[in-house]
Amino acid sequence: MASAELQGKYQKLAQEYSKLRAQNQVLKKGVVDEQANSAALKEQLKMKDQSLRKLQQEMDSLTFRNLQLAKRVELLQDELALSEPRGKKNKKSGESSSQLSQEQKSVFDEDLQKKIEENERLHIQFFEADEQHKHVEAELRSRLATLETEAAQHQAVVDGLTRKYMETIEKLQNDKAKLEVKSQTLEKEAKECRLRTEECQLQLKNLHEDLSGRLEESLSIINEKVPFNDTKYSQYNALNVPLHNRRHQLKMRDIAGQALAFVQDLVTALLNFHTYTEQRIQIFPVDSAIDTISPLNQKFSQYLHENASYVRPLEEGMLHLFESITEDTVTVLETTVKLKTFSEHLTSYICFLRKILPYQLKSLEEECESSLCTSALRARNLELSQDMKKMTAVFEKLQTYIALLALPSTEPDGLLRTNYSSVLTNVGAALHGFHDVMKDISKHYSQKATIEHELPTATQKLVTTNDCILSSVVALTNGAGKIASFFSNNLDYFIASLSYGPKAASGFISPLSAECMLQYKKKAATYMKSLRKPLLESVPYEEALANRRILLSSTESREGLAQQVQQSLEKISKLEQEKEHWMLEAQLAKIKLEKENQRIADKLKSTSSGQLVGLAQENAAVSNAAGQDEATAKAVSEPIQSTSLIGTLTRSSDSEVPDVESREDLIKNHYMARIVELTSQLQLADSKSVHFYAECRALSKRLALAEKSKEALTEEMKLASQNISRLQDELTTTKRSYEDQLSMMSDHLCSMNETLSKQREEIDTLKMSSKGNSKKNKSR
């Protein structure tokens, strides 16, 4: 590929060189032709100089002849002056001589007249020849200057071409070097691509075999299992639920919301316009408070009073259309049923406009016929009448296209899908036309209001009403402009969203199929909601990795925790056994206590009242033995502690010596407390030993992991050293190949330099020849 590109480059260079040589030959021919033309012009200049010299000689001879004639005339005049006094003296005697002199005089006069005319003619010829010579000389000089400038331009062109040729040669040399480097890289890439293509061919063969097997299997399954293909027929495919495009639905709802806001602004502006127009009819040209207005204006005012019943439904229809577009529906022209109601409301409003249009035109004519109307105001009224006609026509046009857009949701055969885009573009054009008409109405009505304000009979009520109408017209203009720009901006999206429908079909066939599809969509959505279950919260991947590292490196490894759990379970079982043992002991103690209480009661019954105090003291001792530490704490007021190897023993400071049973109870409680303390210390030591064991186990695992990583790193080091040695070998081989290629390139560059030197010699010869030609031209 690189060699082909180089050959293409060289062919292009050869073509450019041949073009430059052909241009040089043409320039040579042009220079030679200009030189021949300049030589011919110089010869013509010489001929003209010769003719000029001849004419000058003739002029000199004529001037000499004129001088001679002038001298002769003077002589004749002198003779005539001398002959006149003589004639007076000899009048009577010399009648015959006077006759002769008169004849001579007439002859001389005729001769003099001829000479004067000839002299005048010669003067004219001399002047004309002189002027012609000057003109020819100036023309030849200008032509010579132009030829010299052209020769200089040709020389500059030749110099520029040579410079350009040298630049192209240098550029081509650089391109050649770049292309050689590129060719080498492309050859390497070609080799890699060949290897990749071979691998891809193998993969493609394997995939083809795999896919062919799968296709046969799937075809057999389809033929055996699928009884009916609902995508084959468009009528059945229209009932399939398309893929839910939530972004499309949100976009359509947003667009519908914006359109609703614009329509609301337009509705308020139309209400204000019709209401203030009704107020103006009551004021101008006749004020209803002073005089009765015409029956025409009364009827017109009555119709305008009903404007809200026609304008308000437009907002309601657009609101219903906006509410019908939700996130769960499929919004296309076949499913927007509410567009039909909006179209009907717009039709009723257009009927209202048609009804009030003739009354409006007649009302403007009545204003023009009034005595207060000036010519300028009459012209504005005529313009407004034309604008009102245009406004009604634009609304009719807009209603026609909206009715066409509403047809797919009611009558599927009323509008073909191929015409959707054209209808939408026409809607945009109609909205722009409505905006233009409203701009004209605003302009003409503002001019009309300024003229009416200048009238002497203009009241403050008329001024305020005109201002209100003008503000409503401005609001209408702004609303129309916003709607037109909004529709133009979203026109491409509307056209693109028409293809949103069932899969592998042209769209919904009928509104009934679209309605069935929406019902199926709702059923599918409810089914999916019933299947949907809340997912459990999962740990993020990065956090899980960190926890795994902590788990591997920390003391709370899985095995250590399992051992701790096992040990804790064993301890719990032992403690439960001890608990049962002590529960049995407690029950036995309660039984003994009850028996002792029964024995004391029997003794109390049998003994006298004198021994009651001793028995009470014995009962108190028994109760103190059952209550353990609390009874001893209540009975002893000031305890005294004695320490020994067994532990700390608390005894009272009373002088009374407890009996044997209370002493046994105290010893038993002391030993029990000591046992509890020793068991807690033993548990603490066990937990510490388990903790240290887990730490040692984790450290051993970390050590094993470190040894494994060390082995992996040593293997990587070996591989890296092998790669380094391989790369060094490749570097030596590439160096040798580059040296061979550089030698070949140097040979090729030498040949290129030889060809360039030859071309430079040719350019120098061309320069020398062009310089010689220019010198010859200058010498000529």
TrEMBL record:
<dbReference type="InterPro" id="IPR040024">
    <property type="entry name" value="PPP1R21"/>
</dbReference>
<feature type="compositionally biased region" description="Low complexity">
    <location>
        <begin position="95"/>
        <end position="104"/>
    </location>
</feature>
<dbReference type="Pfam" id="PF21636">
    <property type="entry name" value="PPP1R21_C"/>
</dbReference>
<keyword id="KW-0967">Endosome</keyword>
<dbReference type="GO" id="GO:1904580">
    <property type="term" value="P:regulation of intracellular mRNA localization"/>
</dbReference>
<feature type="coiled-coil region">
    <location>
        <begin position="558"/>
        <end position="592"/>
    </location>
</feature>
<feature type="coiled-coil region">
    <location>
        <begin position="3"/>
        <end position="72"/>
    </location>
</feature>
<dbReference type="Pfam" id="PF10205">
    <property type="entry name" value="KLRAQ"/>
</dbReference>
<dbReference type="GO" id="GO:0003729">
    <property type="term" value="F:mRNA binding"/>
</dbReference>
<dbReference type="GO" id="GO:0031901">
    <property type="term" value="C:early endosome membrane"/>
</dbReference>
<feature type="region of interest" description="Disordered">
    <location>
        <begin position="84"/>
        <end position="104"/>
    </location>
</feature>
<feature type="coiled-coil region">
    <location>
        <begin position="137"/>
        <end position="196"/>
    </location>
</feature>
<dbReference type="InterPro" id="IPR019348">
    <property type="entry name" value="PPP1R21_six_helix"/>
</dbReference>
<keyword id="KW-0175">Coiled coil</keyword>
<dbReference type="GO" id="GO:0030674">
    <property type="term" value="F:protein-macromolecule adaptor activity"/>
</dbReference>
<dbReference type="InterPro" id="IPR049372">
    <property type="entry name" value="PPP1R21_C"/>
</dbReference>
<protein>
    <recommendedName>
        <fullName>Protein phosphatase 1 regulatory subunit 21</fullName>
    </recommendedName>
</protein>
<feature type="region of interest" description="Disordered">
    <location>
        <begin position="760"/>
        <end position="780"/>
    </location>
</feature>
<keyword id="KW-0694">RNA-binding</keyword>
<feature type="domain" description="Protein phosphatase 1 regulatory subunit 21 N-terminal">
    <location>
        <begin position="11"/>
        <end position="112"/>
    </location>
</feature>
<dbReference type="Pfam" id="PF10212">
    <property type="entry name" value="PPP1R21_helical"/>
</dbReference>
<dbReference type="InterPro" id="IPR019343">
    <property type="entry name" value="PPP1R21_N"/>
</dbReference>
<feature type="coiled-coil region">
    <location>
        <begin position="696"/>
        <end position="737"/>
    </location>
</feature>
